[in-house]
Design brief:
The protein has a five-stranded antiparallel sheet, with helices on one face. Strands 3-1-8-9 form a four-stranded antiparallel sheet, with helices on one face. The chain is an alpha+beta fold.
């Protein structure tokens, strides 16, 4: 089973992202309705789900603030012309990322480090574009501050669905 530990945008940021999407709707090939920032995604046998939840419940991280950065095109084979909103790579999110890796390692086993650990690049995938350019350049989503007060664990059955929310304390 596929699992995902992630952050969600604040209501205010979610609203601003949707306003941006409404301005550039003609340029969108495939919208991403599941806005989130991945902390770690992995496969795990479903029989360990309760133990995984217990492990994540023991996280001790205080709420923190993130700031949005620039829009960028990630161009890879799976998602060509993928528009993402980069997030500040601050000490708090890196600490959270590493703690989640520690808590999930025994369930996830070995994993590809391409986008993890020192290569972790916090962002929110917004959409796949029809062409490789950033539309609506006059609209800025950078510099928006938002508070992280919880993380979520989601599972993919057909679509992603949140199975547990964890308050930061």
């Amino acid at each position: 089973m596929k699992y995902l530990v992630h952050l969600n945008p604040s209501k205010e940021l979610f609203k601003k992202i949707n306003e941006y999407k409404n301005l550039i709707y003609k340029d969108i090939l495939k919208d991403n309705k599941f806005l989130h920032c991945t902390l770690f995604n992995f496969s795990c046998d479903e029989k360990y789900e309760d133990e995984l939840i217990t492990s994540l419940e023991s996280l001790s991280i205080k709420p923190f603030e993130l700031v949005t950065k620039d829009l960028e095109i990630f161009d890879d084979i799976r998602n060509p012309n993928c528009l993402v909103l980069k997030l500040e790579r601050n000490e708090e999110i890196l600490n959270l990322h590493y703690k989640i890796l520690e808590r999930t390692r025994k369930f996830a086993g070995e994993y590809d480090k391409t986008f993890r650990e020192a290569n972790y690049n916090p962002h929110m995938t917004l959409m796949e574009l029809k062409e490789k350019y950033i539309p609506g350049e006059k609209v800025s989503l950078s510099g928006i501050k938002f508070k992280i007060e919880e993380i979520d664990l989601s599972k993919k059955i057909q679509d992603w669905g949140i199975i547990k929310k964890f308050k930061l304390n």
